[in-house]
Amino acid sequence: MVVLGFAAALLMAEGKDVFSKYNLDETLSAAENQSKSVMVKSHADSCHFCQKMDRATFTDKNIQIALNDYIPDKVDVDTEEGLNFARQYGITELPTIIMFDKNEKKRYRQSGFHSAKQMEQILKNELD
């Protein structure tokens, strides 16, 4: 029984979803209240590289540690909220990563796949 519980805990840790469960407005408000930056990943379930980043980049333990200084959010462009976000920020490629400071000032924007190593460097640089 203890072994099964431990195995389940390991599987859950490996598949940890780092993204906030808030809508984007709530995420931005929480960031201001907590004095944290926001990292938004524009995403679609049909996007191969979006899925690859979820599996390879955001499950990396160094990324999960680096994201402690952020409120990460994933915006699905196949929803009304996501489509509005994509229009507002001119997103035409997926995935697109946009980072905002706690005052909603855009600090970083880049489309395309980000490896764990690339993402870790970006997360650290954006806090400076």
Topology readout:
Layout: H1 2-14, H2 24-34, E1 37-43, H3 48-57, H4 61-66, E2 70-76, H5 80-88, E3 96-100, E4 106-111, H6 116-127
Parallel strand pairs: 1-2
Antiparallel strand pairs: 1-3, 3-4
How would you concisely characterize the structure shown here?
With about 130 residues, the protein is an alpha+beta fold.
Keywords:
128 residues, alpha+beta, Glutaredoxin, four-stranded mixed β-sheet, 6 helices, disordered N terminus
Distance between the termini: 46 Å
Any idea of the CATH class?
Alpha Beta
SSE class: alpha+beta
Major β-sheet profile:
4 strands, mixed
Low-confidence stretches: 1-14
Our count of domains comes out at 1
Instruction: Specify the helix fraction band.
Output: 40-55%
Strand percent estimate: 15-25%
Indicate the radius of gyration in whole angstroms.
15 Å
> From the structure provided, what is the oligomeric state, counting identical versus distinct chains?
single chain
Which strands sit side by side, in order, in the main sheet? Answer: 2-1-3-4
Q: What's the number of helices?
A: 6
CATH topology: Glutaredoxin
Shape: globular
Count the E strands. 4
Q: Overall mean pLDDT score?
A: 86
Please describe what this structure looks like:
By secondary structure, this protein is an alpha+beta fold. The chain has one domain (17-127): Glutaredoxin, CATH 3.40.30.10. Helices cover 48% and strands 20% of the residues. It is built from 6 helices and 4 strands, in the order H-H-E-H-H-E-H-E-E-H. The protein has helices spanning 2-14, 24-34, 48-57, 61-66, 80-88, 116-127, and strands at residues 37-43, 70-76, 96-100, 106-111. It has a 4-stranded mixed β-sheet. A hairpin with a 5-residue loop joins strand 3 (96-100) and strand 4 (106-111). The radius of gyration is 15 Å and the shape is globular. It starts with a helix and ends with a helix. The model is unreliable at 1-14 (pLDDT under 50).
